[in-house]
């Protein structure tokens, strides 16, 4: 199963970073390049335990819907979202937050995914998808960091 791990250091309190990371509105801001919109479930505000959101976005020129659910929630240190339905065979996205001091947080994303289509999916993972998802998540983290560090 391909795994992407990203570490982002943010000069903001852990509670701020945690809440920005689960903000539906900020997520849409960070995914403008794909036209991503929340269309069902929690469509604005802060998503929480056992809540779903359905996203509609254009990836690789194709409009797609993807529904995920928050399955683990430990404020302000961890939450996990998992795909309920969508283009992946499965994905789990762990969001970890570590307090460095009162005004500094380390955010660690662990994104594990499986593509459909067996061997063809594994080839797509290696050639395209892992790099694409790394860029997608890096941009999302850049927006979270900018929002958290802006007074």
TrEMBL record:
<protein>
    <submittedName>
        <fullName>Ligand-binding SRPBCC domain-containing protein</fullName>
    </submittedName>
</protein>
<dbReference type="InterPro" id="IPR023393">
    <property type="entry name" value="START-like_dom_sf"/>
</dbReference>
